[in-house]
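During the reporting period, our protein records have gained a structure token line. One record among many is quoted in full directly below:
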Amino acid sequence: MPGRRFLPRCLAGIFLLTLATSAPSVARAQPASCAPPAAAGPSGPLPVAAPSLRCGATRATIEVRVAARARPGAGRRVWTVPVATSWSAEPQVLLVLGSTMRRGRQWLRVLLPIRPDGASGWIPRDDATLSATRLWVTVDKTARAVKVYDRGRLIRRFKAVIGTPATPTPDGLAAIYEKDRQPDPAGFLGPWALPLTALSNVLYNFGGGPGRVAIHGRSGASLLDPLGSARSHGCIRIDNGPIVWMARHIPQGAPVLITG
């Protein structure tokens, strides 16, 4: 919903608990070729590859409300996946971590925007439309930089403000969850906020939300914290020119790997 403000959930809050995280694994082996997600073989759909730096990732746009299960076709309900995001009611687009076949039906393992951070579940491929992105984003907390890659080639690098030692930016594989234009570009968050599937491990409930971490701009009082510092409540702040570029070019569901 354009113009709806992403509340600064990573700016003030109540310290409630620290959650153990379990980030999904990222494929280390690079495939010989980058097959499109819609490719099919003579006996049915081909496997959907895990996200990788060289090949990018597959995104699943959820078409109907669906249960994400702990196992392909079975197991407990991990989450009921709605067709729209929770904050600004954008289309629900999830990062696909892999796929498998069960009884002639293909199932997708998707990264979920819920706690515990890094949770995943299995949904039927029939309930989603697949598309590819060649882009891969990293947040390097040691270098305090956001980097964007296209099929493994570095194309952008932006200096960043990261979380403090007490309210760290969480590590692990995440994805772009929403793209929220801010009604006041001169406000603390700048012109755009890009909430991630990642959630704070120490701020559980604050600012009207669940402690969701975002990459966002810098205006107003946030300019008091210089780029390269560790001053946020877990969010990643970059300059306004870079956040506008990211909002225009990085799609929902694109992978964001946070390390350091």
In short: Residues 135-259 form a domain with the L,D-transpeptidase catalytic domain-like fold (CATH 2.40.440.10). The chain is about 5% helix and 40% strand. Helices lie at 240-249. The longest strand covers residues 93-102.
